[in-house]
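stuck on this:

***
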Amino acid sequence: MRKYEAVVILRPESEGLAEAKEFLKTLFNGDGCKTVKEEEVGDRELAYEIKKNKRGYYLRYELEAEPQSIPGFDKALKLRNDVLKYLFVRSEE
């Protein structure tokens, strides 16, 4: 298993935020993946407007995952309307 860092920016509306966080928790603790650390950075102003949003709710994860599971995460996050942006980076630790 390799180590990854993931940052996910969600729409800041409070009614769908809990559901989105629960979805991410189950996604990142599924087959071939384990969440090592989860950090809620919180509501921040975006550098530029994304999908007509000027603010976003940031979540940061440290993961241990199999490399072949990353495309599955990519596909699952693209289908979600509450996810504004996300990034996976392989960690060298």
User: Anything to note?
Assistant: The longest strand covers residues 33-50. Residues 2-90 form a domain with the Alpha-Beta Plaits fold (CATH 3.30.70.60). The radius of gyration is 13 Å. The chain has one domain: 2-90.
